[in-house]
Each structure stands twice: as C-alpha cells, then as structure tokens.
Write a structure and sequence with these properties.
Blueprint: E1 2-5, H1 11-23, E2 27-32, E3 37-42, H2 50-55, E4 59-63, E5 83-85, E6 88-90, E7 96-100, H3 107-119, E8 124-126, H4 144-157, E9 161-164, H5 171-177, E10 180-183, H6 191-198, E11 204-207, H7 214-226, E12 232-236, H8 254-261, E13 266-268, H9 270-274, H10 280-289, E14 294-298, H11 316-332
Parallel strand pairs: 7-8, 7-14, 8-9, 9-10, 10-11, 11-12, 12-13
Antiparallel strand pairs: 1-3, 1-4, 2-3, 5-6
C-alpha cells in the first residue's frame, strides 16, 4: 500500500500520518520527490482503514500494490534507482560494462585481462575467487588469494571489483575486498544469504535463478531490501528451458518487463545465457536495444586454457570490437 501525499502537505502533516501508520504495525518508507511524497507501507495492512486515509485533506490518493514485492515495486518508488559505485552510475539510462574472467587463475592471467578490458572501456572488473561449480572436482577458485589479486588489479587499473559471495561463512571476507557483491543464480533463493546481504551497505548484484519467474526474482530482491540494503542490481543471465543448443535461454523480454514492474537497474549476462562466445555479441546488442542498464561479459586472453567457462569467453580483441559497436548503439539510443 502506498499513500500519495498532496504537494501542499507539510512536513508535520506527513510525519503525523507516518506515526499513525507505524502505530498500526506498519513499517513506513518515505520517498520524497521534487513535487510529491510517497509513504510506502510494508507489513500487515489489515488494520488500516483505506477510507480514513483518503479522507485526510493532505492525502492525494491511496494505491494498493498488487505485487507481493513492495520495496522493489515501481508503484512504491516511481523513479529509477541509480546506484553509484566509485562515481560510476548504474541505472537511469546508463550502459555500464563489467568484464573479466570467469575465475581468477593467477596474477599474470588476471592482470593481463584487467589491463585489456580497461583499455577497451569496461568500467568494472569481474572475476570469481570463490567458484560454485556443478562438479565437486572442477576448479573451485583461489579463494582469499584470488580476492587479494582482484584488489591488486583494482589498485592498478582503478576499476571497481565485482565478485561472487557463495555463503554466510565467507561473506565477511569477500565483502572486505569487493565493491559489488554478486549473488549467483544458484543462490537466488538462499534466503539466509539474501538477508545477510541486506544487512551490509555494499551494492548487491543479484542474478536470476535458472528456473525463476520474474516475480520470484523480484521477491529475492525484496529479501535484500527488506533488511535495509536498497542498492540492488538485477541480472538476467538466461533461464533453463527445453532448448539444449545454448547453455541457457536468454529471456530478453525480462528486461522491459522488469523496467515496467520495478525501479531497480537490470543488467544482462550474455556469456552465461549462451555459453558460446560467438553469441555474446548479438545478445549484448539485443540487451542494450531493449533497455538493459549494462552487461557483465566474460573475457579471457587464452580461453582454450581457461579453468572455467572458456567456451563462452571473448578474447580481448573481440571484446574491443564489441565495445566499439556498443558505444555506437548507446549513442544512437541517447544512453
């Protein structure tokens, strides 16, 4: 439920209604715009009498949020959320590129790739230190040593870091090194981890689960936001369908759908969606065309020797060509 206050409502009148709603057991989130003020009510609203609220001379109207997600809803917050990380803005019409290897493998490997993606215009360096793998025998990442290498790469290139956190036990150590915490598709409904993420002040990159509906995806974001962290970046990375030609099926329609339902920024991961490097470029262009706020792309200078996901990684030269194309597209779309 959202209470839309009249532009003429005073600060005292707004605070009076806020206290009244809180006395009825609701959490109240105030969104102040240039010409409006919204009071978003979260919790059990059964004790609230809508007619009494609408009778208040300072209330313009009452909106009922039809979706179970409230804080993530565009009804709750009409304007786009823009997340600032080291001066780089994600959301609000910007197209931000995050790029790097699937996994940190060595200092030489990471620094080589970091320099290349920086040269071609990437704003963030992505790389996994803790790796969730389907097989327990596959490379599981360099763990804290990998985090230290990511920090070193940031110190040289200036690019903020995006890396995955897998569990509560390693949450704090990962949080020490990164600028954006990624919660992967397999953990999208790890509710204890989502709550932990909500209790920190680091932006969260939340990937859509392999079989999650858009509503389930947004409800996972709601878990994070309900704990107090409003800095959530959504990531569409392909869902599991009956098709086996590609690794996953990129749900390109999810981008405009989420833009309609939510104020949160959404980026696209074409690498995991396709699983094939040759498809990364066309999927990237499609994502930008339908309004994605950015892309997270896997890049490796020697993909044939990569310890993780080499088949979907672009070589630096191809990444550079893609960046040139994306810059032209962004300019044409006035992004």
């Amino acid at each position: 439920m959202v209470i839309v206050m009249k532009p003429s409502a005073t600060k005292e009148a707004i605070e009076k209604i806020q206290r009244k709603m809180e006395s009825l057991g609701c959490q109240v989130c105030v969104t102040q715009g240039d010409n409006y003020c919204l009071l978003g009510l979260v919790g059990d609203t059964s004790k609230i009498n809508p007619s009494q609220i609408e009778a208040n001379e300072n209330v313009d109207r009452l909106l009922k949020v039809q979706h179970p997600f409230k804080r993530a809803s565009r009804v709750f917050q009409p304007h786009d959320t823009i997340i600032d990380v080291d001066g780089i803005k994600i959301g609000g019409g910007n197209v931000v590129i995050m790029a790097g290897p699937c996994a940190v493998e060595s200092e030489e490997q990471l620094m080589t790739i970091a320099r290349e993606v920086k040269k071609h215009g990437a704003k963030f360096l992505r790389g996994g230190a803790f790796k969730p793998r389907t097989s327990p025998y596959s490379f599981q990442g360099m763990k804290e040593e990998g985090l230290k290498l990511l920090k070193k790469a940031k110190e040289e290139t200036g690019m903020p870091i995006v890396t995955e956190v897998m569990c509560q036990e390693t949450f704090d150590i990962v949080a020490e090194y990164t600028d954006i915490l990624q919660i992967g598709a397999r953990n999208m409904q790890n509710f204890a981890l989502l709550k932990k993420a909500g209790q920190c002040n680091i932006p969260i990159l939340l990937k859509r689960g392999m079989s999650a509906t858009i509503e389930e995806f947004l409800m996972s974001a709601e878990y994070i936001m309900a704990e107090g962290n409003a800095n959530v970046i959504l990531c569409e990375r392909g869902i599991r369908t009956f098709e086996t030609y590609t690794r996953n099926t990129l749900d390109i329609s999810a981008i405009p759908a989420i833009k309609e339902l939510s104020h949160l920024p959404i980026i696209v991961d074409p690498s995991h969606a396709a699983g094939k490097w040759a498809m990364v470029e066309p999927l990237s262009k499609a994502a930008v065309a339908v309004g994605a706020d950015g892309l997270i792309i896997e890049v490796h200078h020697e993909p044939d020797t990569a310890l993780s996901d080499g088949a979907q990684s672009l070589k630096p030269k191809k990444f550079g060509k893609l960046m040139t194309t994306l810059n032209h597209m962004a300019a044409a779309l006035e992004k």
